[in-house]
Amino acid sequence: MPQMADVFLSPVMQKVERLIFSTNKAALAGYAQNFRGQSEVQVKLFHYSEQDGLDTDALEAQVLSASEATVLLLATAASSYLWFDPEHYPRNVELCTILKKFPEIRVNFIVCPTTNSARDGWQQHQSDLQSVFGDFLPESGKVDLWTDFDPEQDPEQEQIQSLICRAQHKQSLQCQDVHQEPRGGWLWKPVGGFVLLLVVGFGVRQLMRKLSSLSSQLQGLQNETRDLRNRIQLLEAEVVHLRDGQSLQWWEWLQGICSTVASEVASSLSLPLVASFDIDQLTHLRH
């Protein structure tokens, strides 16, 4: 049986609080399996996104009680390893900058290749970590590699906290709009709607008038077109009549000349039958 003094003098086991951050929930859930069965380590998982804002208040509140932080960096076959470039990964740079402000916390970076080719590509860059991590490179100058990434890992099995402040950002904007709304705004909204309705009604009325005027002009053009068509038909009839009248007069004139010529020839040759034949033949040709 242990003595009472030994019980009081035995060291108290304290849990190590470790924070793990990633933009991929499957990576968080898979990496957390490494700490199963370690009762002395308390793991907290945090998810953030490059497309949304970072909840810095929640982050700093968690960092105050932590002793170690791990950032999982996903590497694909086409990765350019720009995790610490503010233009490409602004949220990651913001996260690591906040972690760096707490020197009592040890920050680790874990590279997580998603495929075998991604793993081979990253191994070629391990000799020049300074160019990738810059000022964020740990003092040890080492970066760990985790090759058990599984995209099918179920993140629901772990308690993953969110550092995305998208909803909070929208809520703050809505609150800001409410605070900045001028007095009597509730009155101006229906009045503005009524004014807009009047403007639209006036515009529709003007448009109807314009359409009516265009319709009248179109009707007038149709009437003028009909009159022109009638005049053209009358002119065509006159041309045909004139052409037929001139043809008749020409044939009568030609017949008279032929008759005169035939009579003279017949008189001189004493051939009345020939002259009569020519006139009859000419008349027959005319018809």
Your description of this structure?
It is a single chain. The protein has 287 residues and is α/β, with parallel strands linked by helices. It folds into two domains: 14-164, Rossmann fold; 226-287. Helices cover 56% and strands 12% of the residues. It has nine helices and six strands. The chain has helices at 4-9, 25-31, 56-63, 90-100, 116-123, 129-133, 166-180, 185-269, 272-286; strands at residues 16-22, 41-47, 68-75, 106-113, 144-145, 160-162. It has a six-stranded parallel β-sheet with strand order 5-4-3-1-2-6. Helix 2 (25-31) links the parallel strand 1 (16-22) and strand 2 (41-47). It is elongated, with a radius of gyration of 52 Å. The N and C termini lie far apart (155 Å).
Summary?
With 287 residues, the chain is an alpha/beta fold.
